[in-house]
Design a protein that fits this description.
The protein is mostly helical and about 575 residues long. Helix content is about 45%, strand content about 5%. Strands 7-8-9 form a three-stranded antiparallel sheet, with no helix packed on it. α11 runs antiparallel to α12 and α21 crosses α22. The two termini are about 35 Å apart.
Length: about 575
């Protein structure tokens, strides 16, 4: 069965009536495409609101359907119909007012506001029309095509920096949802022309689809029509465009950022999280904690920046202890070594180790910045905690994972984890250049290993799926999504977690079990494990010791699996 057109025969079938191949997702029924099958033909009827003749299955045409999502319900002042109205008039009255306005424009009169024509509707009546005919005529006739679809000369596709910035008299946000192309579009604006040229070049480089490029150009026209030198567009003013007109705010902001016209006023998510987590602490303790976590996240003169998850882990481990100290002290200078020992004695195992690492990092930073006189964690050790036992997983966990892997992306994640024991960061960083399918080799984390038949088939099928869905993507990463396909970054950790969330075993558990299985097959030889998976000597010895304990019968039978969050 073809994955795209769902035909039970060959991969791309041909309609039995019109003999045309189907490549655009038109579903087949009884060997015919939807245009030739009698049950799938469009039903031509009259719109229940504007009385326009249209083909479809809904009671209203596409114009009235979109009208109801943009305007509130009410009663029309002119015709009395109860529908969604704009300025107390329904869409049928607005369409008729536009027709009367265009008739006067044809006689040479100047363009005026269509609202005065509402009073003539009762005398002239309503002119019936075919829905979508005007747009179809404009697209087919080159003389009436949309001007924004015309290619922009390369000379105007340059950044137009301004030597000064126009300050606002008072802070009043713009509402771009009220933009009307026929009334407000200014296609001769040099900033708009430059932004459209940048959008065309970015679409060609990043492999944007024609629909995405069209929506991006519409957003640029709505934002930059009438733009003056020195003005900047706020990101918060672009957000309503997505809900109102389904315009890609992300792509529009990328073009504006490249043109130097964007004012990114979004709050820093890290600062928002930091303020929320430290709001219950004492004022001076909270300020010291915020400076510490900012140094961890952003680095310093002699400190490398760390990932955001490191800050989350530090704060999660030390939050309860800092709350306790905030109730007794007003500053961290008052904390003594006895307080640190008391806080550590209240935890065991991994929690004790994580708290010790967090407090040591906090007080070392404060001592380096000369905020405290003495480090209270000096000479205090958390002690070594026993590592959990490595036990094999039952077969039901793998059966559940294979059943859940229904998409090509899930199959790639599963086979790289179960067969090659690849970690999640290594899978995310994998690029198409790391694959050598003719030679049956793959490079994971700088370690080249051969490809088995199962992995070769799964990767070959996924690459075909990737090429069919995103043929012009510039992203070189192996795993991409609809979000990362138009950029250059890898998939997120949250996306990887969702692929097998709620299953009987997580990907990390299956990776550990794969290395343990190889250690059992090799008789507990750590050198063999290090050569196969490219792991360190310490990790290889740990798996080899667990394998020898299982073979000697020292360990008991594995416990029943429990559900994890992955």
């Amino acid at each position: 069965m073809c994955w795209w057109c769902r035909h039970p025969g060959e991969r791309h079938a041909t309609c039995g009536a019109c003999q045309q191949p189907v490549f655009n997702g038109r579903f087949f029924a009884a060997g015919r495409c939807e245009f030739c099958h009698p049950q799938r033909r469009l039903r031509w009827t009259s719109c229940a609101q504007c009385q326009a003749w249209y083909g479809g299955k809904r009671p209203t045409c596409s114009g009235c359907t979109g009208w109801r999502y943009r305007h509130p319900p009410g009663t029309c002042r002119e015709c009395g119909s109860v529908f969604f109205v704009r300025d107390e008039h329904c869409r049928a009255c607005w369409v008729q007012a536009r027709i009367l306005e265009e008739a006067d424009l044809a006689e040479g009169q100047a363009r005026v506001d269509p609202r005065p024509y509402f009073t003539h509707i009762a005398r002239t009546g309503y002119q019936l029309e075919i829905s979508g005919l005007k747009r179809t005529t404009q697209l087919l006739n080159p003389r009436w095509r949309y001007r924004e679809l015309q290619p922009i000369p390369p000379a105007t596709a340059a950044r137009l920096p301004a030597s000064w910035e126009q300050l606002r008299l008072f802070d009043a946000g713009r509402d771009y949802r009220r933009f009307r192309k026929t009334d407000h579009a200014d296609l001769d604006n040099p900033y708009l022309a430059a932004a459209l040229g940048l959008a065309d070049r970015k679409a060609e480089l990043c492999g944007w689809s024609p629909e995405l490029l069209l929506l991006t150009r519409r957003g640029l026209i709505a934002v930059l029509s009438g733009h003056q030198a020195g003005e900047r567009v706020r990101y918060s003013e672009l957000v309503p465009l997505y809900a109102d007109r389904k315009i890609s705010v992300t792509r529009v902001s990328e073009v504006l950022q490249e043109a130097g016209l964007l004012d990114d006023d979004r709050p820093d998510s890290f600062e928002v999280w930091l303020a929320r987590r430290t709001q219950d602490l004492a004022p001076e303790i909270g300020e010291d904690v915020r400076r510490w976590l900012r140094a961890v996240h952003r680095g310093g003169p002699r400190r490398r920046p760390r990932s955001r998850s490191s800050s989350w882990g530090f704060m999660s481990a030390a939050h309860s202890t800092l709350l306790d100290w905030s109730g007794r002290y007003s500053h961290l200078r008052e904390v003594t070594g006895a307080d640190v020992k008391t806080a550590l004695d209240a935890h065991q195992g991994c929690r004790r180790k994580e708290l010790h690492i967090s407090l040591r990092s906090l007080f070392m930073h404060l001592r380096r910045e000369k905020v405290i006189f003495q480090n209270p964690t000096t000479g205090i050790k958390a002690g070594a905690h026993p590592r959990p036992l490595i036990l094999p997983l039952p077969q039901e966990c793998y059966t559940d994972a294979v059943t859940a892997a229904t998409t090509p992306e899930q199959q790639v994640l599963l086979v790289l984890t179960v067969v090659h024991a690849a970690r999640r960061p290594a899978i995310k960083a994998l690029t198409v250049d790391d694959l050598d399918l003719p030679s049956r080799a793959i490079t994971i984390g700088g370690h080249t290993r051969p490809l088995d038949e199962l992995t070769h088939q799964v990767l070959h099928g996924y690459l075909l799926h990737r090429h069919r869905r995103w043929p012009h993507t510039p992203n070189r990463h192996l795993l991409i999504t609809r979000v990362t396909a138009h950029g250059h970054g890898p998939v997120s950790d949250y996306w990887c977690h969702l692929q097998f969330a709620g299953r009987r075993a997580s990907l990390e558990q299956m990776r550990i079990d794969r290395q343990l299985e190889e250690a059992l097959a090799g008789g507990g030889d750590p050198r063999r494990l290090a050569a196969i998976f490219g792991i360190s000597e310490f990790t290889a010895v740990r798996y080899a010791s667990a394998a020898r304990a299982i073979m000697d019968g020292t360990l008991e039978s594995p416990p029943p699996p429990t559900k994890t969050r992955g």
